[in-house]
Write a structure and sequence with these properties.
By secondary structure, the chain is α/β, with parallel strands linked by helices. The protein has helices at about 5-10, 30-50, 65-75, 100-110, 130-145, 185-190, 210, 225-235; strands at about 25-30, 55, 85, 90, 120, 150-155, 175-180, 200-205, 215-220, 255-260. The protein starts with a helix and ends in an 8-residue tail after the last strand. The mean pLDDT is about 95. The structure holds 2-phosphoglycolic acid.
Length: about 270
C-alpha cells in the first residue's frame, strides 16, 4: 500500500473554468419508481445501440435496477451480448471471489443472469498485487473503448458526496487510481462485510475525468441518507469537497431521485 497514496496527494484543481450545466432532475414518489425509470433508461440505451459501452455501479442503490434488467432479459429478450461493460470501481485489496467484492456483486446481481459476453465485462482486479499498475491497466482499457455511451452512478451516503470511490479531495482531472476509503465510507461500507475488519483499505475507481468522458450520465439516489449529498452536489459549490458536484460540468446528466433523496431540494 505504499505508492498509491503518493498519486492521490498529487491531485490538483484544474486552473481552467469549465462550463456549468443544470442536470435534468427527475423526482419520483417511490424507490420502486426510481428503479423502473433508471432501468428504462438503460434498456432504451441497449435497444437503440446494442453494442453500447456502459459504466455500471454497485451498492444497494442499483440492486432493484439490475433485477428489472434481468426481468427484461427474461421476458423481452433484451440482448446483452454485444455490450461492453466497465465497472465503476472495486475494493483493493480483496480476493476476487470474496462475497463482498464488487466482482461477486455484479456476477450475482446481473452478469450470471443475462447473456453478457464474459470477455466484455471489465472490473478492476481487487486481487492485483500492485494497485497502481492495475489502475493503469484499467485506465488503458477504458481509453481503448472510450467514449462510454452511458455511465450509471450512485452517490455516497451522508456527507461523502462520492461517486465511485472518488472521496473528498478527488479533483476534476482525476483518472483511474486507488483511493483510500474515507472514515465515513468505512463506517457505512463495513456493514457489507460479515467481518467488518475485512473491509479493504482502499478501492480502485474510475476518476472524475473518466466518468465525465461518458456521453450520458445517470445518477440514482434513494432514501434520506442521500438527501444531504444530493443537495450539496446539485446546489453547492463545484469543488473536490463534494466530488459529485463535478457532474454539473457535464452537459448530459440525469438525476433520478425518490422524494426522500430530493427532500432538501427546493
Ligand atoms: P449505496 O452506495 O448504493 O450502497 O448507497 C452508493 C455509494 O456509496 O456510492
Amino acid at each position: 500500500m505504499s505508492d498509491y497514496r503518493e498519486s492521490i496527494r498529487k491531485e490538483r484543481p484544474l486552473d481552467e473554468q469549465l462550463p456549468i450545466y443544470q442536470p435534468d432532475i427527475i423526482v419520483l414518489p417511490t424507490a420502486e419508481e426510481v428503479d423502473q425509470c433508471a432501468a428504462d433508461t438503460i434498456i432504451q440505451q441497449i435497444r437503440s445501440k446494442p453494442d453500447s459501452i456502459l459504466t455500471l455501479p454497485t451498492g444497494s442503490t442499483p440492486k432493484g435496477v439490475y433485477q428489472l434488467l434481468v426481468d427484461a432479459y427474461r421476458t423481452t429478450n433484451l440482448d446483452f451480448s454485444q455490450l461492453t461493460i466497465f465497472n465503476l470501481d472495486e475494493y483493493w485489496p480483496i480476493p476476487h471471489q470474496h462475497p463482498s467484492s464488487y466482482a461477486y456483486y455484479m456476477m450475482e446481481n446481473l452478469y450470471r443472469h443475462v447473456n453478457v459476453n464474459p470477455s466484455n465485462i471489465h472490473i478492476p482486479r481487487g486481487d492485483a498485487p500492485d494497485a497502481h499498475i492495475e489502475a493503469q491497466r484499467y485506465e488503458e482499457l477504458l481509453k481503448q473503448h472510450s467514449p462510454v455511451d452511458l455511465a450509471v452512478l450512485g452517490i455516497g451516503p451522508g456527507t461523502t458526496c462520492h461517486i465511485g470511490f472518488n472521496e473528498k479531495g478527488s479533483e476534476l482531472n482525476s483518472r483511474v487510481r486507488c483511493m483510500p476509503l474515507d472514515v465515513e465510507t468505512r463506517q457505512t461500507n463495513s456493514a457489507f462485510f460479515t467481518n467488518p475488519n475485512e473491509l479493504p483499505e482502499g478501492a480502485i475507481t474510475q476518476g472524475i475525468a473518466n466518468i465525465l468522458e461518458a456521453q450520458n450520465i445517470v445518477l440514482i439516489a434513494k432514501g434520506p441518507a442521500k438527501a444531504w449529498g444530493i443537495h450539496r452536489a446539485l446546489t453547492g459549490e463545484i469543488n473536490a469537497d463534494a466530488p459529485a458536484s463535478f457532474l454539473r460540468n457535464h452537459p448530459n446528466v440525469t438525476v433520478i431521485l425518490d422524494q426522500e433523496a430530493a427532500q432538501l431540494l427546493e
